[in-house]
Specification:
121 residues, mainly beta, seven-stranded mixed beta sheet, four-stranded antiparallel beta sheet, 11 strands
Length: 121
């Protein structure tokens, strides 16, 4: 089974931009949808965005609309999350996952290890 490896997290300042990458090791998740989730300290895991495998349809949580962009390479080997105008409340561990087109983390059965994003004021 293919694995997911995330990278791109780091320490940034308020208003900065950051792009996260989720790379597939092994066979690409062709026909599988890809999602991004995040978990802040003391909070439950939260949906961020999802992109379909078929036509590239996307859906965002309200806080991400207009600031975050999810995308996927044509070969479906890499999924990205571009984050702009970052705020301190965006601080969290960000996870990518493969599964079904859903906002529910339970619909995703393969997860990356997570990458830390810290937004300093």
């Amino acid at each position: 089974q293919a694995q997911l490896v995330e990278s791109g997290g780091g320490l940034v300042q308020v208003g900065d931009s950051l792009t996260l990458s989720c790379i597939v090791l092994g066979r690409a998740f062709i026909g599988r949808d890809m999602g991004w989730f995040r978990q802040a300290p003391g909070k439950a895991r939260e949906f961020v965005a999802v992109i379909s495998s078929s036509v590239g349809s996307t859906y965002y949580e309200n806080f991400a609309k207009g600031r975050f962009t999810i995308s996927r390479d044509n070969n479906q080997n890499t999924t990205y999350l571009q984050m702009n105008s970052l705020k301190p409340e965006d601080t969290a561990v960000y996870y990518c996952a493969a599964g079904y087109y859903s906002t529910n983390p339970g619909a995703f059965d393969v997860w990356g290890q997570g990458t830390q994003v810290t937004v300093s004021s």
